[in-house]
Every structure is written in C-alpha cells, then in structure tokens.
Design brief:
375 residues; alpha/beta; Rossmann fold; Jelly Rolls; 6-stranded parallel β-sheet; 5-stranded antiparallel β-sheet; 29% strand; SDR family oxidoreductase; NAD(P)-bd_dom_sf; Lipid_A_modif_metabolic_enz; RmlC_Cupin_sf
C-alpha cells in the first residue's frame, strides 16, 4: 500500500511510523511533517490512502477551532487532486463536538473531509481516539500522562482533579488507524483502558520509588502497567543510564543482583560474544529488555527510530551495570575488548516465535531512510 502520513513528525506520527516499519515494511510511506507541509500536494500524489494525523492541540481558542478545519481543507484538496487517493483516515478525538473550541474544530474538520471527498469518490474513516499516552509524548501538550511523568521525575506534585478516564497507548492508536485504512468508512471508536487520573499518578510514583534507586522493576504482567512503565522510563533515557548495580564480594567470589522484578518473572538468558562481533540490531514495540555485561568489555549502542543520533554506553563486567532498552530505539551490543564477553539479557515476557516483538534495523545504517522503509 502507498501511504501518506500528515503529522509524521509528531507523537502519534512517530509511533505509527515505527509500527509500519515493523509490521508492514513493504508499504511505501510519504512522511509529511511540519516542514514538508508546503509540498503537501506533491507528497500526497500517488498515495492510495492518506492518514491525516496533523492537528493543533494547544493554541488560542480561535486557532483551535479554525486551525484544524484549515488543515483538513488542505488535505481534502490534495487528496482530491491526486487522482490516486481512495481513502482518508482522520485521527480525530472523542472530544469532537463537546462544545469546546478544540472539540468544535475537530468535529468540523471531520465533517468537511467527509462531505468534500464524497464528491470525488474518496471514502473517509473518522477515528475518534480516546486520551493517548506513550513513549516520547510532550509534557503539557500531548497528554496529561506525559505531564505527570515529567513531574514525578522532577520530584514535583501536580494539582490533580480525579476523574475516570479511558487511556489508549499510542501503539494501540496506530493499529486502529491502520485497521481503518482497510475497514469500512464511517466513524469508529477504539477502546482504551479504563482507569482514573489518580490511579495513573499513583502508578507513576510507585515506578519512581522502585526504579530510580536500584533499577528494581514493577510487576509488568498487565499490558497497561507495562506500557505506562515504558512511557515513564523513556523519559529517563539517556540521562538515568546506565543503572549502577551493587556487587557483593567476599573470599568466595562476587554476587550481583541483575534483575529484581516485583511480581512477574519474564525470561532470562545468557550469551557469549566474540571480540568485534555485534549482536542485536533490532527494536521493540512493547517489550522491556535489559542488558548486563558480566565479563569482558562492550559497547551498547542505541538510536531512536527515524533520527540520526546514536547514544552509546561503554560497559565492563568489572563494574556491572544495567541498560534497559527504550521502546522504538534500535539497539545492539558489540564486544570491544580482546576477549569474549558474557552478557545476561532479561525480558518481561517469554519469547514467542509467532509474535517476537523484535524488528531488525541497524543502529548505524549505511542508508537510514532506506533501512527504515521510508520512501
């Protein structure tokens, strides 16, 4: 499928792109960010489906009401002129039509897309997303969860007005948008996880009390807890890493507690890697993965998908540390010394060959754009 994604440089856009690169690497993707907007018509031309994620979330009332409509109008014009687009999927909000300037603008944008494109035989799916959260959300912009994460790390306490809330991880939202590209036209309402504002804050505080002092992990058996924990620890990366472990030595030798998980087991495995050899070169959409070098020296390198900067940690078994891989960062480990290294790996879930949540992409690709499926 040939896809054009507006808002590709935003929070949801990044999550959608890493999902496409992982699960649909053969799709052709035109990623349209803010700097690309003047070329909207050119980039939409040739697409089968437009995934319209671009939007205005925080602004003056008039801009919230009118700005999202203006964006929709430009997308409709480009899709109609393309001669190829058969469907537009609109990333809308459950707040559409709630009487606020934002809700009024989002509803009007959906109505404009539907009515305008119907005249050109282009179907529209209006995806009403609940509150989103996930890795690399912007505090005070994308989600109250991102704001809470920022506050808990800074040691601050926000003012909280508790209420029930439905939360959907950005990967769930990305899948709902991809499903809409192939489903029936109309309005769809993806389901979120039912929780409350106070419960989210309490969970984040619990993560922080466990994780920061010693690298202890919370119970990750529930997908929502795992996704919230991944959101939290992504905000710690890279400043918090590597996590220092505390070896205990006596005349018998040395003991190192490498993983302490409160309530769920996961899977532990050990590998040896010969000098100069690299393991890994992959990323995950949900999995929590920890590296601990127990003997020898190595470089652990990571790169956030669709960026160029590589973060690297030089580690040694003489002073063991833990590095936990953030979601959406491709990572590897290279034996850098003159002898074979021994590394312990831990993941929060048992390996499932039918659903491994492991997607191959080099940390230092020769051609990044080609390697990550972007055309």
């Amino acid at each position: 499928m040939r896809l054009a994604i507006t808002g590709a440089d935003g929070f949801l856009g990044w999550h959608l792109r890493i999902r496409l690169a992982a699960l649909r690497p053969d799709d052709s993707v035109a990623a349209i960010g803010l700097d690309d907007w003047p070329r909207l018509a050119e980039l939409v031309a040739g697409a089968d489906v437009v995934l319209h994620l671009a939007g205005i979330n925080r602004a003056a009332d008039a801009e919230l009401e009118d700005g999202n409509v203006s964006l929709a109008r430009e997308v409709a014009t480009a899709a109609a002129a393309s001669g190829s687009v058969k469907r537009v999927v609109y990333a809308n909000s459950v707040q559409a039509g709630n009487g606020t300037p934002y809700g009024t603008g989002k509803l009007a944008a959906a109505e404009l897309l539907t009515s305008t494109l119907a005249e050109h035989g282009i179907s529209v799916v209006d995806v009403r997303l609940p509150n989103l959260f996930g890795e690399h959300g912007r505090p005070n912009y994308n989600s109250f969860v991102a704001t809470f994460v920022d506050k808990v790390i800074a040691g601050e306490s926000p003012e909280i007005q508790d209420r029930p809330i439905s939360l959907l991880h950005a990967q769930g939202a990305a899948q709902a948008i991809l499903d809409a590209a192939a489903g029936d036209p109309g309005v769809v309402f993806p389901e979120g996880h039912q929780t409350s504002v106070v419960e989210v804050w309490n969970l984040l505080q619990g993560f922080h009390r466990l994780y920061v002092p010693s690298g202890d992990l919370p119970d990750l058996a529930e997908p929502f807890t795992r996704d919230l924990f991944n959101t939290y620890r992504a905000a710690l990366f890279p400043a918090h890493y590597p996590v220092r472990l505390q070896p205990r030595s006596d005349d018998r030798g040395r003991l190192v507690e490498t993983v302490r998980c409160h309530g769920s087991g996961g899977q532990t495995f050990v590998s040896t890697t010969h000098p100069g050899i690299t393991r890994g070169e992959h990323y995950h959409l949900h999995k929590v993965e920890r590296f601990v070098v127990l003997d020898g020296s190595a470089e652990i390198a990571l790169r956030k998908m669709f960026t160029d900067e590589v973060v690297a940690f030089n580690v040694t078994g003489d002073e063991p540390v833990a590095v936990d891989m953030p979601v959406g960062w491709t990572h590897n480990i290279t034996a850098t010394g003159d002898r074979t290294i021994t590394t312990q790996f831990w993941t929060d879930s048992l390996f499932d060959p039918e659903a491994p949540d492991t997607y191959w992409t080099k940390v230092r690709p020769a051609n990044e754009a080609a390697s990550e499926g972007q055309k």
